[in-house]
Amino acid sequence: NSRGAASLLKDSIPVTEFSASGPFEGHDLLRRGFTSVKNELLPSHPLEVSEKNFQLTQDKTNFAMLRNIQGLHAPLKLQMEFRAVKQVQRLPFLHSSNIGLDTLRGNDECIGFEDILNDPSQSEVMGEPHMMMEYKLGLL
């Protein structure tokens, strides 16, 4: 064989197979928390799914009404502005309030549950900054 042993190993075993992704990936408790089979199967309340999708449903209704009134260009322009504003965020270990998105949606003058008691999914738990940046950039 004219090829060396190193090239044989490199050709026969892809390095990506050793990564921790796929069906046999272990559950990362530090990043995802504890798992519960019951919580993954059923919502805890019949209205939970409706409440989770409330903003999406309201946006679709507003886009349809805007399209009927002003034409196709208005919802497309607004969706482009939404995407541009969503991309601007703080570092991954800091909470981002998305005040620009709230202003575009008209929610900046509304007082909701998350304004007083904060959204439970956005709790003020700060992780290790270096590890979280490496995870976001795909280095970890």
Short description:
This protein has helices at 5-12, 29-32, 37-41, 48-52, 54-70, 73-87, 99-105, 113-116, 129-137. It is mainly alpha-helical.
Give a structural overview.
The structure is a single chain. The chain is mainly α and 140 residues long. 53% of the residues lie in helices and 0% in strands. It is built from nine helices and no strands. The longest helix is centred in the middle third of the chain and has 17 residues, at 54-70. Mean pLDDT is 76; it is low at 1-19.
Pattern of helices and strands: HHHHHHHHH
Strand content: under 5%
- Which percent bin holds the helix content? 40-55%
Summing up helix and strand content along with how strands pair, one would put the structural category as: mainly alpha
Shape, principal axes of CA atoms: extended
Number of domains: 1
**Based on the structure, what is the oligomeric state of the protein chains?**
single chain
What's the number of extended β-strand segments?
A: 0
Mean pLDDT reading: 76
**Number of helix segments?**
9
**How is the main sheet built?**
none
Features:
140 residues; mainly alpha; extended; disordered N terminus; POMP protein; chaperone; Ump1
List the helices and strands and how they pair.
Blueprint: H1 5-12, H2 29-32, H3 37-41, H4 48-52, H5 54-70, H6 73-87, H7 99-105, H8 113-116, H9 129-137
